[in-house]
Design goal:
The protein folds into two domains: 72 residues, no CATH class; 220 residues, Rossmann fold. The protein has eleven helices and 13 strands. 28% of the residues lie in helices and 21% in strands.
């Protein structure tokens, strides 16, 4: 979810120098091996993790499951996981992944809305081999890298990537490849570009045909503060399927636009922190922790509750 989330800006590419440095390190012998010596320092110095890594594959582990994430030279998430030796950090991000995986053990179908290069989607598939995961993202290059990850993990029969936004129906133009040093970890429907491919934005309600009747659904939502449109155009889907949801809320998220809707459908709210989940009466974006659990079955997640924080 919030792993390595960065905004789309000119500074992301060091004004073009980072792109050139990435080209250079691909021909430097043993570059990644030399950089591995700095991993202990990277846990304390975030700036070090911005250094480029030559293209390689990372084995990412999570409570008995693992997936391969490729393209560390382009995928920011894979690069950050390389620096942490395949362990999801910080702890609140690890909990968000674990909670989504757990929700998927009870599901037949999962939606990963804002999937990027597929960490959550693939981990969910590895957790439940009968699960079908539909992964949606606005970024053409993210979907391209996700397809590569699906193939190297042999998950083509479980994870189905689609270049699609979910929210207020419409279309937006997005370049096939953005001129940044790495693929942005998120992009919202608020962005607009002059040139590129037309990407469709579909309502959550329109995705109902993906889900057969009488099956359980889990969802992960990471749409850069546009989740109000996901829920605004998805009330029918939520009413029919009552999915357990892990949702990122940024400080600019318009929670007043959907809190009443979710409460009316029987949802309970839990903030995901570094020690587990904390029940909350109302939705209020946290200054540090971004991810939330929305569920109509709170008892199912009792073992994730942060007992110290609640006391």
């Amino acid at each position: 979810m919030s792993v390595a989330t960065r905004s789309l800006s000119a500074s992301q590419g060091w004004f073009g120098l980072k792109f050139l440095s990435k080209k250079a390190i691909e021909i430097v012998p043993f570059y990644n091996r030399a950089m591995s010596g700095f991993k202990p320092l990277a846990t304390r110095h975030a700036w070090l993790r911005r250094a480029p890594i030559a293209n390689t594959t990372v084995n990412v582990s999570s409570e008995g499951h693992s997936v391969l994430m490729g393209n560390t030279s382009r995928c920011e998430i894979a690069k950050q996981l390389w620096w942490s030796s395949g362990n999801v950090q910080p702890p609140e991000d690890r909990y968000a992944l674990e909670i989504f995986k757990f929700a998927c053990t009870h599901a037949h179908v999962a939606f990963d809305i804002g999937c990027n290069t597929g960490l959550f989607a693939m981990m969910a598939a590895k957790t439940n081999r009968d699960l079908k995961v539909f992964a949606f993202d606005l970024l053409p290059e993210a979907i391209s890298l996700l397809i590569e990850n699906i193939l190297i993990n042999d998950l083509a029969d479980q994870v189905f990537p689609t270049l699609l936004g979910v929210g207020e129906p419409g279309r937006m133009t997005i370049p096939i490849s953005l001129k940044t040093s790495s693929v942005p970890t998120s992009l919202s429907t608020d962005f607009e570009f002059e040139q590129g491919v037309k990407v469709r934005i579909a309502s959550l309600d329109s995705l109902t045909p993906f889900v057969p009747n009488n099956v359980s659904v889990a969802m992960k939502i990471d749409v850069e503060a546009t989740e109000h449109n996901v829920f605004r155009f998805g009330a029918g889907f939520l009413t029919k399927h009552s999915p357990d949801m892990v949702c990122e809320l940024l400080r600019r998220s318009q929670v007043t636009a959907f809190e009443k809707t979710l409460s009316g459908l029987g949802y309970s709210f839990f903030l995901i922190g570094p020690n587990g989940i904390q029940p909350k009466e109302h939705l209020e974006p946290h200054p540090k922790y971004r991810d939330w659990l929305f569920t109509t079955r709170p008892e199912r997640f009792d073992h994730f509750v942060d007992r110290v924080a609640v006391a």
